[in-house]
Write a structure and sequence with these properties.
About 15% of the residues lie in helices and about 40% in strands. With about 325 residues, the chain is mainly beta. It folds into two domains: about 220 residues, Jelly Rolls (Sandwich), CATH 2.60.120; about 80 residues, Jelly Rolls. Strands 1, 6, 16, 17, 18, 19, 20, 21 and 22 form a nine-stranded antiparallel β-sheet that branches. Strands 2-3-7-14-9-12 form a six-stranded antiparallel β-sheet. Strands 11-10-13 form a three-stranded antiparallel β-sheet, with no helix packed on it. Strand 4 and strand 5 form a beta hairpin.
Length: about 325
Protein backbone atom coordinates (compact mmCIF):
# COMPACT_ATOMS: atom_id res chain seq x y z
CA UNK A 1 0.00 0.00 0.00
CA UNK A 2 1.37 3.38 -0.98
CA UNK A 3 2.47 5.81 1.70
CA UNK A 4 0.12 8.55 2.90
CA UNK A 5 1.03 12.23 2.53
CA UNK A 6 -0.47 15.66 3.35
CA UNK A 7 -3.85 15.78 1.58
CA UNK A 8 -5.78 18.65 0.02
CA UNK A 9 -9.42 18.20 -0.95
CA UNK A 10 -11.84 19.66 -3.50
CA UNK A 11 -14.39 21.74 -1.58
CA UNK A 12 -18.12 21.11 -1.89
CA UNK A 13 -20.18 24.28 -2.22
CA UNK A 14 -23.66 24.78 -0.79
CA UNK A 15 -26.13 27.40 -1.93
CA UNK A 16 -28.03 28.90 1.03
CA UNK A 17 -30.93 31.34 1.31
CA UNK A 18 -28.72 33.43 3.63
CA UNK A 19 -25.45 33.02 1.68
CA UNK A 20 -23.41 35.69 -0.12
CA UNK A 21 -20.41 36.29 -2.37
CA UNK A 22 -17.39 36.33 -0.01
CA UNK A 23 -16.35 32.70 -0.55
CA UNK A 24 -15.99 33.52 -4.25
CA UNK A 25 -14.89 37.16 -4.18
CA UNK A 26 -12.82 37.30 -0.99
CA UNK A 27 -11.34 33.79 -0.87
CA UNK A 28 -11.19 33.11 -4.61
CA UNK A 29 -13.14 29.84 -4.63
CA UNK A 30 -14.65 28.67 -7.92
CA UNK A 31 -18.21 28.17 -6.67
CA UNK A 32 -19.79 27.63 -10.10
CA UNK A 33 -23.16 29.21 -10.78
CA UNK A 34 -24.40 29.25 -7.18
CA UNK A 35 -26.21 32.57 -6.61
CA UNK A 36 -25.69 32.62 -2.82
CA UNK A 37 -22.83 30.35 -1.77
CA UNK A 38 -23.25 30.08 1.99
CA UNK A 39 -20.86 27.21 2.72
CA UNK A 40 -17.68 25.64 1.39
CA UNK A 41 -17.20 22.19 2.91
CA UNK A 42 -13.41 21.93 2.90
CA UNK A 43 -13.12 18.51 4.51
CA UNK A 44 -16.13 16.23 4.86
CA UNK A 45 -17.05 12.59 5.38
CA UNK A 46 -20.78 13.33 5.65
CA UNK A 47 -22.74 10.74 3.65
CA UNK A 48 -23.58 12.21 0.25
CA UNK A 49 -21.16 15.12 0.69
CA UNK A 50 -17.74 13.47 0.90
CA UNK A 51 -14.83 15.63 -0.24
CA UNK A 52 -12.38 14.12 -2.73
CA UNK A 53 -8.58 14.33 -2.63
CA UNK A 54 -7.21 17.00 -4.99
CA UNK A 55 -3.44 16.30 -4.88
CA UNK A 56 -1.10 13.37 -5.46
CA UNK A 57 -1.76 9.76 -6.41
CA UNK A 58 -4.86 9.49 -4.20
CA UNK A 59 -6.64 12.27 -6.16
CA UNK A 60 -10.29 11.39 -6.76
CA UNK A 61 -10.64 9.19 -3.67
CA UNK A 62 -13.09 10.51 -1.10
CA UNK A 63 -12.40 10.91 2.61
CA UNK A 64 -14.47 7.88 3.64
CA UNK A 65 -12.66 5.65 1.16
CA UNK A 66 -9.32 6.76 2.62
CA UNK A 67 -10.51 6.08 6.17
CA UNK A 68 -11.72 2.62 5.14
CA UNK A 69 -8.45 1.69 3.44
CA UNK A 70 -5.84 3.37 5.65
CA UNK A 71 -7.69 3.18 8.98
CA UNK A 72 -5.43 4.13 11.92
CA UNK A 73 -2.59 5.19 9.57
CA UNK A 74 -4.87 8.04 8.51
CA UNK A 75 -6.74 8.93 11.70
CA UNK A 76 -4.65 7.43 14.54
CA UNK A 77 -5.21 4.35 16.69
CA UNK A 78 -7.35 5.89 19.44
CA UNK A 79 -9.46 7.79 16.93
CA UNK A 80 -10.06 4.70 14.79
CA UNK A 81 -11.00 2.63 17.85
CA UNK A 82 -13.64 5.23 18.76
CA UNK A 83 -15.04 6.26 15.36
CA UNK A 84 -14.22 3.37 13.04
CA UNK A 85 -14.61 4.29 9.38
CA UNK A 86 -16.42 7.56 10.11
CA UNK A 87 -14.01 10.46 9.71
CA UNK A 88 -15.00 12.44 12.83
CA UNK A 89 -14.43 16.11 11.86
CA UNK A 90 -16.16 18.35 9.32
CA UNK A 91 -14.53 21.67 8.35
CA UNK A 92 -16.46 24.47 6.63
CA UNK A 93 -16.10 28.08 5.63
CA UNK A 94 -19.39 29.95 6.08
CA UNK A 95 -20.47 33.25 4.51
CA UNK A 96 -23.49 34.67 6.37
CA UNK A 97 -24.97 37.47 4.27
CA UNK A 98 -28.21 37.34 6.31
CA UNK A 99 -29.32 35.78 9.59
CA UNK A 100 -29.19 32.00 9.71
CA UNK A 101 -32.12 30.31 11.40
CA UNK A 102 -32.02 30.16 15.19
CA UNK A 103 -31.14 26.52 15.71
CA UNK A 104 -29.84 23.82 18.01
CA UNK A 105 -28.03 20.52 17.49
CA UNK A 106 -28.49 17.23 19.38
CA UNK A 107 -25.71 15.57 21.36
CA UNK A 108 -24.16 12.24 20.34
CA UNK A 109 -26.57 10.10 22.35
CA UNK A 110 -29.71 11.80 21.01
CA UNK A 111 -28.42 11.99 17.43
CA UNK A 112 -27.46 8.31 17.43
CA UNK A 113 -30.85 7.29 18.82
CA UNK A 114 -32.87 9.50 16.44
CA UNK A 115 -30.72 9.68 13.29
CA UNK A 116 -27.98 7.03 13.60
CA UNK A 117 -25.49 9.90 13.44
CA UNK A 118 -22.94 11.69 15.55
CA UNK A 119 -24.22 14.79 17.34
CA UNK A 120 -22.98 18.25 16.53
CA UNK A 121 -20.70 20.17 18.83
CA UNK A 122 -18.96 22.92 16.89
CA UNK A 123 -16.85 26.06 17.10
CA UNK A 124 -16.61 29.24 15.03
CA UNK A 125 -13.48 31.27 14.25
CA UNK A 126 -14.40 34.64 12.75
CA UNK A 127 -12.23 35.27 9.68
CA UNK A 128 -13.84 38.59 8.79
CA UNK A 129 -16.72 40.70 10.11
CA UNK A 130 -18.46 43.71 8.63
CA UNK A 131 -18.81 46.68 11.01
CA UNK A 132 -21.73 46.13 13.40
CA UNK A 133 -21.92 42.37 12.79
CA UNK A 134 -23.43 40.19 15.49
CA UNK A 135 -24.42 36.63 16.19
CA UNK A 136 -26.75 34.80 18.57
CA UNK A 137 -25.39 32.41 21.16
CA UNK A 138 -27.38 31.13 24.15
CA UNK A 139 -30.08 32.91 26.15
CA UNK A 140 -30.03 36.46 27.52
CA UNK A 141 -32.02 35.57 30.67
CA UNK A 142 -32.69 32.74 33.06
CA UNK A 143 -34.62 30.21 31.03
CA UNK A 144 -36.53 26.98 31.49
CA UNK A 145 -38.68 24.78 29.31
CA UNK A 146 -41.95 26.55 30.21
CA UNK A 147 -40.60 30.08 29.60
CA UNK A 148 -39.11 28.96 26.31
CA UNK A 149 -42.41 27.42 25.13
CA UNK A 150 -44.26 30.63 26.05
CA UNK A 151 -41.75 32.70 24.02
CA UNK A 152 -42.20 30.30 21.13
CA UNK A 153 -46.01 30.58 21.23
CA UNK A 154 -45.83 34.38 21.55
CA UNK A 155 -43.38 34.59 18.61
CA UNK A 156 -40.78 36.20 20.87
CA UNK A 157 -37.83 33.87 20.32
CA UNK A 158 -35.56 36.77 19.17
CA UNK A 159 -36.29 38.60 22.45
CA UNK A 160 -34.83 35.84 24.65
CA UNK A 161 -31.64 35.26 22.62
CA UNK A 162 -28.21 36.52 23.67
CA UNK A 163 -26.68 38.72 20.95
CA UNK A 164 -22.92 39.20 20.70
CA UNK A 165 -21.05 41.90 18.79
CA UNK A 166 -18.41 40.18 16.65
CA UNK A 167 -15.02 41.09 15.24
CA UNK A 168 -12.28 39.29 13.32
CA UNK A 169 -10.45 36.74 15.47
CA UNK A 170 -13.37 36.05 17.83
CA UNK A 171 -14.06 32.42 18.77
CA UNK A 172 -17.34 30.88 19.90
CA UNK A 173 -17.62 27.30 21.15
CA UNK A 174 -21.10 25.85 20.56
CA UNK A 175 -21.63 22.60 22.47
CA UNK A 176 -24.57 20.45 21.38
CA UNK A 177 -27.72 21.86 22.98
CA UNK A 178 -26.77 25.55 22.83
CA UNK A 179 -29.13 27.69 20.70
CA UNK A 180 -27.31 29.85 18.15
CA UNK A 181 -27.48 31.75 14.86
CA UNK A 182 -24.98 33.65 12.75
CA UNK A 183 -25.83 37.21 11.73
CA UNK A 184 -25.16 39.14 8.51
CA UNK A 185 -21.65 40.19 7.47
CA UNK A 186 -19.69 37.25 8.90
CA UNK A 187 -17.10 35.06 7.18
CA UNK A 188 -15.87 32.24 9.41
CA UNK A 189 -14.33 28.82 9.73
CA UNK A 190 -16.44 26.18 11.44
CA UNK A 191 -14.95 23.08 13.07
CA UNK A 192 -17.56 20.50 14.01
CA UNK A 193 -18.36 16.84 14.50
CA UNK A 194 -19.23 14.94 11.34
CA UNK A 195 -22.96 15.51 11.42
CA UNK A 196 -25.55 17.39 9.37
CA UNK A 197 -28.32 17.28 12.00
CA UNK A 198 -29.85 20.71 12.65
CA UNK A 199 -33.09 21.51 14.46
CA UNK A 200 -34.48 24.83 13.23
CA UNK A 201 -36.24 26.78 16.00
CA UNK A 202 -37.02 30.11 14.33
CA UNK A 203 -36.40 31.38 10.80
CA UNK A 204 -37.30 35.08 10.89
CA UNK A 205 -40.59 34.33 9.03
CA UNK A 206 -38.47 33.95 5.89
CA UNK A 207 -39.90 32.74 2.56
CA UNK A 208 -37.81 30.41 0.38
CA UNK A 209 -37.47 30.43 -3.43
CA UNK A 210 -40.64 28.35 -3.73
CA UNK A 211 -42.62 30.90 -1.70
CA UNK A 212 -42.79 28.62 1.35
CA UNK A 213 -41.75 29.01 4.97
CA UNK A 214 -38.79 26.74 5.74
CA UNK A 215 -39.56 23.77 7.98
CA UNK A 216 -39.18 24.22 11.74
CA UNK A 217 -38.29 21.36 14.09
CA UNK A 218 -40.02 22.61 17.22
CA UNK A 219 -40.68 19.28 18.96
CA UNK A 220 -37.31 17.73 18.09
CA UNK A 221 -35.51 20.85 19.33
CA UNK A 222 -37.33 20.99 22.66
CA UNK A 223 -35.59 17.91 24.08
CA UNK A 224 -32.21 18.94 22.65
CA UNK A 225 -31.99 22.46 24.12
CA UNK A 226 -29.73 23.26 27.07
CA UNK A 227 -31.72 25.96 28.91
CA UNK A 228 -28.86 27.03 31.18
CA UNK A 229 -27.78 30.65 30.89
CA UNK A 230 -24.05 31.38 30.99
CA UNK A 231 -22.11 34.48 32.07
CA UNK A 232 -19.95 34.51 28.94
CA UNK A 233 -20.31 32.86 25.54
CA UNK A 234 -17.26 34.15 23.69
CA UNK A 235 -14.13 31.99 24.09
CA UNK A 236 -11.15 33.82 25.58
CA UNK A 237 -7.69 32.88 24.32
CA UNK A 238 -4.19 34.39 24.13
CA UNK A 239 -2.53 34.42 20.75
CA UNK A 240 1.26 34.07 20.72
CA UNK A 241 3.14 34.77 17.53
CA UNK A 242 4.94 31.70 16.13
CA UNK A 243 3.73 29.56 19.03
CA UNK A 244 0.80 27.19 19.47
CA UNK A 245 -2.06 29.01 21.22
CA UNK A 246 -4.74 26.72 22.74
CA UNK A 247 -8.30 27.82 22.00
CA UNK A 248 -10.83 24.98 22.40
CA UNK A 249 -10.43 21.53 23.91
CA UNK A 250 -13.30 19.06 24.25
CA UNK A 251 -13.81 15.33 23.76
CA UNK A 252 -14.75 15.88 20.10
CA UNK A 253 -11.80 18.00 18.99
CA UNK A 254 -8.94 20.23 20.10
CA UNK A 255 -8.30 23.48 18.25
CA UNK A 256 -5.25 25.73 18.50
CA UNK A 257 -4.34 28.90 16.61
CA UNK A 258 -0.97 29.44 14.95
CA UNK A 259 -0.06 33.03 14.02
CA UNK A 260 3.01 32.71 11.80
CA UNK A 261 5.46 35.41 10.80
CA UNK A 262 8.47 33.08 10.49
CA UNK A 263 9.01 29.34 9.81
CA UNK A 264 8.25 26.87 12.62
CA UNK A 265 8.55 23.13 13.09
CA UNK A 266 5.81 20.96 14.61
CA UNK A 267 6.37 17.53 16.16
CA UNK A 268 3.38 15.16 16.31
CA UNK A 269 5.30 12.01 17.27
CA UNK A 270 3.24 11.46 20.45
CA UNK A 271 -0.15 12.63 19.16
CA UNK A 272 -1.77 9.49 17.63
CA UNK A 273 -4.27 11.57 15.62
CA UNK A 274 -4.66 13.17 12.21
CA UNK A 275 -4.13 16.95 12.15
CA UNK A 276 -6.15 19.42 10.08
CA UNK A 277 -4.75 22.84 9.19
CA UNK A 278 -7.39 25.38 8.16
CA UNK A 279 -5.87 28.61 6.88
CA UNK A 280 -7.91 31.63 7.96
CA UNK A 281 -5.56 34.40 6.80
CA UNK A 282 -2.50 34.69 4.56
CA UNK A 283 -0.84 31.61 3.04
CA UNK A 284 1.84 29.07 4.00
CA UNK A 285 3.90 26.22 2.59
CA UNK A 286 4.09 22.92 4.43
CA UNK A 287 6.99 20.53 4.01
CA UNK A 288 6.60 16.98 5.35
CA UNK A 289 7.39 13.43 4.23
CA UNK A 290 9.28 14.79 1.22
CA UNK A 291 6.19 16.70 0.06
CA UNK A 292 5.66 20.44 -0.36
CA UNK A 293 2.11 21.82 -0.28
CA UNK A 294 0.89 25.41 -0.38
CA UNK A 295 -2.27 26.41 1.49
CA UNK A 296 -4.00 29.78 1.35
CA UNK A 297 -6.84 31.43 3.28
CA UNK A 298 -10.04 29.45 2.90
CA UNK A 299 -8.28 26.12 2.31
CA UNK A 300 -7.67 23.09 4.56
CA UNK A 301 -4.99 20.41 4.64
CA UNK A 302 -5.19 16.98 6.27
CA UNK A 303 -2.06 15.47 7.80
CA UNK A 304 -2.37 11.69 8.27
CA UNK A 305 -1.48 10.28 11.67
CA UNK A 306 1.68 8.79 10.12
CA UNK A 307 3.04 12.31 9.54
CA UNK A 308 5.01 13.06 12.68
CA UNK A 309 7.10 16.12 11.83
CA UNK A 310 6.27 19.12 9.64
CA UNK A 311 7.81 22.47 8.77
CA UNK A 312 5.55 25.47 8.16
CA UNK A 313 6.77 28.44 6.11
CA UNK A 314 4.49 31.50 6.01
CA UNK A 315 4.37 33.00 2.52
CA UNK A 316 2.97 36.13 4.16
CA UNK A 317 1.71 36.75 7.67
CA UNK A 318 -0.58 33.79 8.31
CA UNK A 319 -3.11 32.46 10.77
CA UNK A 320 -4.30 28.87 10.78
CA UNK A 321 -6.36 26.59 12.96
CA UNK A 322 -4.68 23.38 14.06
CA UNK A 323 -7.27 20.67 14.82
CA UNK A 324 -6.86 17.13 16.14
CA UNK A 325 -8.44 14.69 18.59
CA UNK A 326 -6.79 13.84 21.90
Amino acid sequence: MNKLYPLKFKPIYKDKIWGGQKIKNQLGHQVGNLPNCGEAWLLSGVEGSQTEVANGYLAGNDLNELTEVYMDDLVGGKVYDKYGETFPILVKVIDANDYLSVQVHPNDEMAMERHNSLGKTEMWYIMDADPGSELICGFNQKMDREKYINALLDKKIPDIMNREAVKKGDVFFIPAGRVHALGPGLLLAEIQETSDITYRIYDWDRIDAAGEFRELHTELALDAIDFEQHDAYKTAYSEKENETAPVVSCEHFTTNILHLSKPIEKDYEELDSFVIYTCTEGAFRLEADGEKVEVKAGEALLLPATTTRVNLYPIKETRLLEVYIL
